[in-house]
């Protein structure tokens, strides 16, 4: 599974569970309402933006929703240490 697939799978699960629109989630994660759809169409983002988005998911994931299978869940402390 590619990183792009992981991001899209995670965003789809989050939106389906919370009822949040993909556009709103895209704005929160990627500072643009059309960026998730751009990625779905084959577009790309940098690694720092990907890591930031996945960390946001990890920190904001509903406690009663199972994390997507096959997608590594980032740990906040590890991500912050790697950035330093």
Task: Write a short abstract of this structure.
With 84 residues, the protein is an all-alpha fold.
Please render the helix and strand layout as text.
Blueprint: H1 3-18, H2 22-30, H3 35-40, H4 47-60, H5 76-83
Tell me about this structure:
The protein is an all-alpha fold and 84 residues long. It has one domain. It is built from 5 helices and no strands. The mean pLDDT is 92.
Largest sheet: none
Secondary-structure-derived class: mainly alpha
Q: Which band does the percent of strand residues land in?
A: under 5%
Rg over C-alpha atoms, rounded to the nearest angstrom: 12 Å
| Total count of strands | 0
The domain tally reads 1
Overall shape: it is globular
Mean pLDDT figure: 92
Low-confidence stretches: none
Helix share, percent: 55-70%
**Order of helices and strands, N to C?**
HHHHH
End-to-end C-alpha gap: 28 Å
């Amino acid at each position: 599974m590619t990183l792009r697939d992981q991001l899209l799978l995670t965003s789809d699960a989050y939106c389906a569970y919370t009822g949040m629109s993909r556009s709103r989630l895209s704005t929160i994660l990627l500072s643009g309402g059309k960026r998730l759809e751009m990625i779905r169409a084959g577009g790309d983002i940098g690694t720092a933006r990907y890591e930031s988005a996945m960390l946001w998911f990890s920190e904001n994931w509903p406690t009663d929703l199972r994390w997507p299978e096959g997608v590594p869940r980032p740990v906040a402390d590890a991500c912050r240490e790697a950035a330093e």
